[in-house]
Amino acid sequence: MEASDLEEIEKGIESTKKRLKNIDIPSIDKKEGMYFIWVPDDFEVYFESKTAGPKEIDGENMLVSEISLNNYYNANREKYLLVGQDNNLQNVIKKFLDYKNKNKSERIIWQIRNFEELYLGYHYSTDSLKKKNAFLDYFKKDNSVFIGNHHFKSNDAIASWSGFNYQGKVTILKIIQHINQLIKEDGAESISSYHVELEKTEDFVIYKDDVPMELYQVKAKLSSFTNSSYKDAIDKLIINRGENIDATCFLISAVEIKDWNLETAKDVKLYKYASELAVEMKKVPQFIKMELQDYFTSISKNLGLIEIDYMYNDICQFIDEKVAEIHSTQGKKNYSIKYQEFTHLLNRKTSELEENIDAKIKEKVYDFISEDFNEEIDNFCEDCLINDLNPNIHCSECALNPLRDNIMQMNFERYSQILRFHENKSLSGFSPMKALDRDSLRRLFLEFMHVDIKSLALYLDHNLISLEDEKIIPTEMNFEYSYDSSLSRAFEIMQKNDSVHDVISGKILTAKFGDRGQIAYLENLITAFPEDEMDILESTSSRKYAYKDSISEKLDFKIIDREMLIEKLKEQKDGK
Fold it and tell me: Of 38, 115, 276, 481, which has the fewest beta carbons less than 10 angstroms from its beta carbon?
């Protein structure tokens, strides 16, 4: 594209740009031209698992995996999301805004959170199709186009061979299962000898070097339960095996074939997984994730459930792209994928997971805080009212009201580290969502509901109670059934969780204990435990528990029993 053409286009769309929510359709002429969707400087793109548009058009699912979308966008973070063209700009933009455009690419715009804040601009031009393609070519990066012009597969199974239908998924299952078997029996280096061939003569064929070892036909005939229903697939396997008599032929079926036997099946075997003669469609994702977990365990990688979900999605997308590449290649096609390509993908993706997992967790926290949290606190307040849990105070004066408002705007990821100060944050299994389960929230509510609203201090990363010149942070820590050894481990974790030491320094943290001895043992780890008869809020010294050159030198906090605090708060309220 000539620089002058690009300058003219960008000048045109800049002069017509408006947020999607402010588009005035009648002001757009019914002329030929191009239209553009792009990202304002003050906007953060995040794709969701839901859409503001239709979920289906003509019976076809219009949703695209939000993981695929966010991964694709974050890889390039282009300013432009979509460029389109038409002979009638007013009509095509109206259809687009009315969600009536059936274009499978443009649908992804409606999965962007707060999409109405995106810019739309247009440029009247003849030869709009030619200029659109030139514009796309000009901005093309590493064979990637704008996300709105990229063709994504639907989130559900599709009719053609892909990583998102039954045929593609059972291929993935078998390959990862085989890789795990090879690593276990022959070592990781053995996988370099293997590759899989996709849909050239069979659905897939496994090769060792250049020799076919196993041939597979995949059938998802959900209403076919007899051997005769699969005669064509059996015959095709035998014919294509040809002179490779040492190769084994397999049929993978989504339903159990009642009368299967090797004689009538001409020695074609039924593929089994976990001793099941049928690999049910709904179970395949679960089986793949199990094999992925085994693979990462074998290479000493400890991945959590969310991370395995990401890997599952990535490997499905990988197969999808490989098949698309085969179909788009002109001339001689390469139908093969080396096993090492699978392992390289999985190993590479582990290093890219941290940012994506963090974003996904933040989204779950956001969804909970914005929707379910209000329901939890409403239910708690209803129970409180019915059972008269907090007498002598009107609901409007309850400290839970400002607490509710503050949690809506807090950095909950950081707050959760304080609420769960005794849990290891370095493990992949930890999530802020732990601090949002129903029982944990109720424990927090019970502490805060008895606080005089004037004694409540609210911050963006913690909430505390001011009582008798002490600053108390209610937490969800529970040591009720802990032994001395587990208390010692918990304290070691507290020492390592130094990202919140600045917040807890000089404060008192609450926890649930089973008996006074547990408090004494833990306090002795933190500081010097004084005489039993001293007041609970004066019962600990401020002397630091320190090691030379250790982070614990910064660890300066006290700890009290949650129930004793509640009683103290009740006494204070009753005394007024």
Answer: 481
